[in-house]
Protein 1
Amino acid sequence: MRLERMSWKDCEEYFKDHDMVILTTGSTENHGIHNPLGTDTMIPNKILELVEKQSDVLIAPTLPYGDADFHTEYTGTISIGSDLLEMVMERISDRLYDCGARHFVFLNGHGGNTHALSKVCRHLYKKGAVGTIFDWWTIAGKINPKWAGGHGAGQETAAMLYVDESLVQKDKIEDSTLKVFTPSLTASNAQTVNFKGVDIPVPRSNRLSSDNGWFGKDHPKYATYEWGKEMVEATADFLVEYMKEFQKMCQLKLKMSQKK
């Protein structure tokens, strides 16, 4: 059930009997030279398509921009930063709260968005609502550890093969070598360095870690359509089941508030 396809009267009727809404955040940013810039938006949108077939929860339009500041040295990346993302999502959530929403499911496609979304959830909690953040790639890796992956690597490439195989430029997949800064200090990931076996955060542009833009142990050359299909569909199924239980958790919160 899509908000943008409903009239205001349809929306009013929905909130007479329902109070849950799905808000999706993506990103427009580098995902390697083989994946499209909209990877973090298109994958959660595919999950939404699958969820819609199984659930009548209201789905708000997806925000295709997020906090991608670490990727801005890659051409085409558009970042609105964490503060603006928080403000936008808080404003949208507040309006939906006014309409009657009390259960907010934030389906998230980009790790950089999580901090801002956490603050929005705390804001909603103070108003008597409850928010939850569903980082799809993390959940997928928990459902099946074989699906866990890095940035623009096997996991996301497999998901994109399922979303739209024509958008993955397989002939441009290449190795990604993390950079060596000193003989004993190397990049262990995009935002960490390794010193004597210990990973230590060093926040920086991801371009200082990988020239081609992807990183992770799951090489994209091993990604397949079948992997992506199984993973994305399982994640969508999991979200549908989770929302049913999340509804009960919110009801419990309401009862606890009434006792105070």
Protein 2
Amino acid sequence: MEITFFAPAWGNTLPFDQFCRNVKAAGYDGVEMALPFEEAEKSAILDTLAKHGLQLIGQYFQSFETDLDEHARNYEKYLRHLSAAQPVLINCQTGKDFFTFEQNQRLFELADRISGETGVKIIHETHRGKALFAAHITRDYLQKLPQIRLTLDISHWCNVHESLLENQTEAVQLAIQHTDHIHSRVGHPEGPQVNDPRAPEWAETLNTHLAWWDQVVALHRQNKTALTVTTEFGPATYLPVLPYTQMPVASQWDVNVFMLNLLKNRYSG
């Protein structure tokens, strides 16, 4: 069973070629990112990834429209645009938390159709503000639409439920069964990202997340299916900052590389 690791482009401020050079040197297999519509800019990004031997996971997060018809049109536009680059997969922050089940179902079914037409796998992220914003809500979707496959970013649910999900065991277990991609950010009851997962005060929280990810890895090993992981600790102010100066309390890059090495060592062999 193969696990491939991806760096988030989110938060990068370096020239893209230098960023890719750093990503490759750190030991990543690819980058997760959105792609611009401007053709020359998009081509330059894809050429740079290829130059450094890096794979692409397409990222869709532009779920802003409140009108469902407009939302669906833009959703399809972005997914077809990403599909044209033939990424490893597309990770979608699908729908809205205030859409009805039937409204979000329309988007999930649209993604399935586009995936079938393009041959590109499209999966859906457990993300605040989106269709799969909470554990119990996601359980309902997975029970009624069992074809849904997930990007498990369980940090969001810790924040939404203000817990380490002790009372959401069945929903978490069902989500794990549907997971094909992990965002390995560590959340906590008061936020979607601990300030630094290396700090001893977060040991229990980190170990709780590792136990969830262990189960995902075990399932993919059992089924002999590929698994992808993005170390998706975000930049300031997702990463907590000091008051007044707004200086980040840790380095986003260092934290993500720490997670990369931790998980590579944990799951090697």
Protein 3
Amino acid sequence: MKYDKISGFADEIAEGVDTQFRVLQKLNISYFEPRGIDGKNIADLSDEEAEALKEKMEQAGIRVSSIGSPIGKIRLDEDFEAHFRKFQRVVEVAKKLDARYIRMFSFYRPAKPDSAEGAASGAERETAQDWSAEEREEVIGRLRRMTAYAKEQDVVLLHENEKDIYGDTAERCADLMKELSCEHFRAVFDSANFVQCGQDTKEAYEKLEKFISYVHIKDAFLEDGKVVPAGAGDGNVEYILKSLLDNGYDGFLSLEPHLGSFAGLASLELDDKMLDLPQGGEGTFTLAYRALEEIVDKIIE
């Protein structure tokens, strides 16, 4: 690999961090994006567990590229104060692990009554997905408060475009960046997630390029949203990476393969279409790495 800032969600290799680090070392990857650590979410680690993780990182020569947190992945009608406390805890864990970046999201819409969802169809469903002005203001208000705290603590929030949250489309991601972008609130660019929202990733890239500080590496098909190795789908991954690198990008490229099932996957997805995939692990993570390596080595000759 002709690029050294490669990272990844190593919990897609295995639940246990020892196995995660063994495989990362085999692939000469020196960073990871911690999310699942020995069966626990990174946000739920105790001080002792965070310290033990830091010790294992030092022994393995692995550093954190960004905390793969679940922050912002709740509905607007859920308890934000409790969630904000979890966010503060994530910041504490990030500092213990010497991580300045924290991946996060921009909230789901309030739950709809089952009867209303069942009655909606066609254009009615499309309208049901629109965000009201009040919901938008609530999202931005929450993120503004979190960004202010991030500034106090000198960490950087990285907003990931994710299907069904406020910032799922390029337009709404650009809206968030227009309102909030600063050195403590920046964008993750995830091609596969944009594809799964029916977005043209080249257009999304043009809208968001100046805000991108981190990249997730995965690809997908427009037809059915199936996740595939980088370069094999409709995400224009090679085009986007070449544009970024040609324009001086020197940030992380973080593998999020999603090519097989892994511990915690069910809690990350709103639907079950990924649960039928083959068992994930070292093989699928390595496949994702090799696909990225081929693209990067072609770009950097």
